[in-house]
Amino acid sequence: MERIGKYEIRRKLGEGATSTVYLGFDPFAQREVAIKRLHPEMLRVTDHTTLYHHMLLNEASLAGKLQHPHIVQIHDAVIDDRDAYVVMEYVPGGTLDAFTSPDKLLPFERLIEIIFKCTRALDYAHLQGVTHRDIKPANILLTAPDGQDIKISDFGAAIFTASETTQLPGLGSPAYMSPEQVREQPLDHRTDIYSLGVVMYQLLTGRLPFEGSSKASLMYKIAHETPPPPSSIRPEIPPELDAIVCKAMRCEISGRYTTWREFSHDLAEVYRNRRTVADSTEPPDSEKFERLRAFRFFREFSDIEIWEIVRFAEWRLIPPGTVVMKEGEPGNYFCFVVQGELRIAKKSHLLNILSAGDCFGEMALFSPGRGARTASVETTTETRILTIRAPALLRASSLCQMHFYKGFLEVLASRLSLANSRIASI
Question: How far apart are alpha carbons 301 and 307 in whole angstroms?
Fold first, then answer.
């Protein structure tokens, strides 16, 4: 069996001008991996070799640094005079390149979900001091061909705020470069915002915003021209998506989104507005994330922890007059109100009214499977709740668990303070 280092080679996944990517197997970790290996001729000492080594080292340096559910994980790397390869997480669903032609465009809702997750991943990278600098459809991988979970790959062209050695000009894919990249000006996260805008433009229309007969003419257009709005090519594109793409792709940096969060928020709002009020289906991940991020309870949770909760929590839409918890019954789960209103009663006496952002049933966290509910909870309006079961929480990361425990202590302290105030007023 052919090997690269300790890794068993199963098949070739793809090949480019400088490297080949293989599907491999790690016998120690017992998992499939993707292995990007420089071609042997790239190992000969030339100016180009230095550049390719630099790019591979960039990727290798990220091993263990960018831990995000929507960024490809780097596991291992070997870079010397005899061989050069990076071992990374294998993502089987292909790339967004498959959806860039007019006959294979994604539904708007799926496209928004994918781009939203890209914004959150790139915001995380930015907060770690990393600017990708080569955002394009080929570097956005799908975890499943028909799914909407993504992972961003190929940080070889990245720049790091703490390192001057990575500030090399000329890296990136010309069609997706920002005007400041073309002009070889200093770069920050807003260059990635522009490039993701180009990706979004292409996924919406099946065309690139700029095309040229040569690299020079293409780069001139990027630096000096404004592309036609996507809806001029595809009239059914909603004006809200038009506006997002145009803002992300503003030639002048000052006119672009200032932060990734602004970009994310606008995408989530478009998705939310496209859903009917009566829609009882489970909300998309983008809406779940935005809802949780807006709640006071989750203010200290990292984005990664919020994504954890999105994955393991249950979301339900419940009609009015439904008893969600019954006094005296055992329970091993707790809930948050996402929208709507509920009443808490003990022996038919009203204790409290709950609304969006409130939690209830959290004492089950401290006595899972044994504690009896001390009050009943009933919906008074159509209500969407988020349910977290004790076993799911126990499988969460230690930091996520810690933030839950801290949050519940604050909730309990607030309730005790309120109860004391009521007693004092009697």
Answer: 10
One domain, residues 71 and 103: no
Q: In the structure, what pLDDT confidence band is assigned to residue 411 with cuts at 50, 70 and 90?
A: confident
Q: Which residue has the tokens 């990278």?
A: 125
If pLDDT is split at 50, 70 and 90, which confidence band does 60 have?
confident
What local confidence, expressed as pLDDT, does residue 56 receive?
Answer: 77
User: Of the residues 134, 154, 303, 358, which is catalytic?
Assistant: 134
The amino acid that residue 251 corresponds to is C
E strands of 27-148, at which residues?
31-38, 74-79, 84-89, 130-131, 140-142
With contact defined as beta carbons under 8 Å apart, do 181 and 133 qualify?
Answer: yes
Between helices 260-274 and 189-205, what is the axis angle to 10°?
Answer: 30
Boundary-marking domain end, from 249, 274, 299: 274
Local confidence band at 278 (pLDDT 50, 70, 90 cut-offs)? very low
Q: How many whole angstroms separate alpha carbon 275 and alpha carbon 281?
A: 10
* Strand runs labelled E in 280-375: 314-318, 323-325, 333-339, 342-346, 349-354, 359-360
CATH of the domain at 178: 1.10.510.10
Predicted local distance difference test score (pLDDT) of residue 164: 41
Q: What is the pLDDT of residue 304?
A: 93
Q: Are residues 81 and 153 in the same domain?
A: no
Does the active-site annotation cover 103? no
Where do we find the tokens 């202590």?
409
Say which residues have a Cβ less than 8 Å from residue 54's Cβ, sequence separation at least 6: 165, 166, 168
Kindly report the pTM of this predicted structure: 0.83
Residue 85, beta-bridge partner list:
37, 78
Contact yes or no for 118/203 (Cβ under 8 A): no
Judged against a pLDDT cut of 70, whether residue 162 lies above it is answered with no
Expressed as residue numbers, the domain containing 144 is 96-274
